[in-house]
Every structure is written in structure tokens, then in C-alpha cells.
Amino acid sequence: MTLEKNIEADIIIITWNGLEYTKRCVQSIEKYTKNVDYRIIFVDNGSSDETLEYLKQIPNSILISNDENRGFAKAMNQGLKKVSAKFTVWLNNDTIVTSNWLRKLIDYLSEYDQAGAIGPVSNGTGIIQKVEGLESDDDDKIEKFGHKINNEFKNSIVEYHRIAGFCIVMRSEIIEKIGMLDEDFNHGGYDDDDYCKRMREKGYKILIAEDVFVFHKSGASFSSAKNPDFDLRFLMPLGRRRLLRKWQIND
């Protein structure tokens, strides 16, 4: 396998309050992202806590600040328009990465020419990417669990029709060939399902790296939402119906 040498990646992180989650995410990136020249593109969706002040201090980053919560798809599109690196990363702010996560994922993409995107396994995601056994959200235990996953499933990848949007690494050329996220899926998810479908329609394969673990505190960004406009219990069924209608899929 011939691996890329001078790797550059833009990591897009959408924030909306949840400062403590964002801090842990950024600290893990700084600690465990090796052999990749990365830049973080933060898109803040109108945070009312101290998130903006924190983000302004992060080196190697740019910040897009919205006056209101524009939703995930619209915010991600703002970030995608700033991408200049060969590889693009979607990363939720309620994730914690583990050792060498990004280099491993990029190396797999480089090895498989037809692969357009790849995702890791996680504790907090759908069935195909989900792994059991992590009993704590302690940083050291997360890293040890990631090391365990790497050893048990070393060099194991599978192809699937979709990967979850909490962590997606893709070739940036896809943005030009496929376009931006469909903003009809702006609240309630399924923007990642739709984008994966569009990738496959263009002939790209989608991979899962079973030896790369990223912790995900699923739903943390919405956990305090009282307004139905931002409550996933109301929004997820709507997003699913939009996806089924768009692609004329029988439920």
C-alpha cells in the first residue's frame, strides 16, 4: 500500500452551546491527530454560552459565527465552502477521537481508489458502526478502548451503503462533484443518509474502518432542547419521511 506523505485535512465542527463537549473534542484532536496537517473550521450556530470565546483561542482554525441556529445542513455547507485541503472531515462536537484516528482513515481512502468516504466505529451510533463494551466516558478509558479495538480488528474494513455523520472523512473532490448538503434535511438528521446515497449514485464506495474508534455522546447537542424546532424526538421522523420521499424508497 502506497500511503500519502503530505496529508492535509479540513475538519468541520458545528457548535451550538455545549462548551464542555467541544473542549473535550478539541483537546482529543490536538492530542491524537498525528501525521496530518489539519485545520479546524468551526461554524457556531448562535451559542449563548462561552463557546465563541473559547473557539477564538484555538490555533490552526477559522471561525464562522452565525447570529442564530441555522441548523446542521446549512452550517455544514458554510464550512464546506471554506474547504481547501484534499480531505474533508465532518466531526460532531460531542465526539472524542483516539490515537491516530485521522491518519488511519485517510490511509484507507488513499488505498481504495473508488472509496469516497469512510467512517469509524463508535459506542453511540447506528447498528452497523456500533461497538459494545465501553462502560465509561472517562478520557483515559476511551483511549484504552480505542487501542483495544485497533488491536482486535486491525486492518479490518467493510463496505456499506451509509455511514453516520458524527464522523465522516471524505475526499474533498466530492464537494465539487456532488455539491452541498441538501438543506431540506436541515433539522432532524438524514442529511448524512442523503449525502451517502448521492455519493453512491456517482460511483463512490463508502467504507467503515472497524479498527478506528471515535467516542460519540449521541444527541448531546440536542439534549436540552425544549423547542420542537430543535428536539430530535419530533424532528427525526420528519427527516426520515423526507428521505423516503426524495428517493422514492418504500418504508
Describe the 3D structure.
The chain is of the alpha/beta class and 251 residues long. It has a single domain, classed as Alpha-Beta Complex (Spore Coat Polysaccharide Biosynthesis Protein SpsA, Chain A), CATH 3.90.550.10. Helix content is 34%, strand content 22%. The protein contains eight helices and ten strands. The chain has helices at residues 19-32, 51-55, 72-80, 101-111, 139-152, 173-178, 191-201, 232-247; strands at 8-15, 37-45, 61-66, 87-91, 95-96, 115-121, 157-159, 167-171, 205-213, 215-216. The strands form two sheets. An eight-stranded mixed sheet has the order 3-2-1-4-8-6-9-7, sandwiched between helices. Strands 5-10 form a two-stranded antiparallel ribbon. The longest helix has 16 residues, at 232-247. The radius of gyration is 17 Å and the shape is globular. The relative contact order is 0.17. Residues 222-235 have low confidence and may be disordered.
